[in-house]
Amino acid sequence: MSGLFTNRRDLDAWAHALGVDNDDDAIGVLHRLTDGLVDADDRLRGAQKTLAKAPNRDVLVQLSRALGRIDQLQTVLEEVARGFQIHERR
């Protein structure tokens, strides 16, 4: 973990942004958001298969970019959740 989200001030800001006031609730919201991203990823992969033979390759390029961005966002949210988990144990 890079330590980006382990200090109290950052975690407080994240909790506020998530609309919660404790670590457990923040972790729960982050997990629900991550689950939603997994669902979105699955749908985009399905669209990618459906459009695999599309005459315009740009649509596949854009789908690929979207999948990459979803993956990046999942990574960030998981790192924030780990920050809350580490903080909770201290």
Describe the structure.
This protein has 90 residues and is mostly helical. It has one domain. The chain contains three helices and no strands. The protein has helices at residues 8-18, 23-50, 58-89. The model has no long low-confidence stretch (mean pLDDT 90).
List the helices and strands in order. Answer: HHH
- Which stretches of 5+ consecutive residues score pLDDT under 50? none
The shape, in one word, is elongated
Mean pLDDT: 90
C-alpha end-to-end distance: 16 Å
Q: What percent of residues are in strands?
A: under 5%
Brief synopsis:
This protein has helices spanning 8-18, 23-50, 58-89.
Furnish the topology, listing elements before pairings.
Elements: H1 8-18, H2 23-50, H3 58-89
Helix pairs in contact: 1-2, 2-3
Annotation keywords:
mainly alpha, single chain
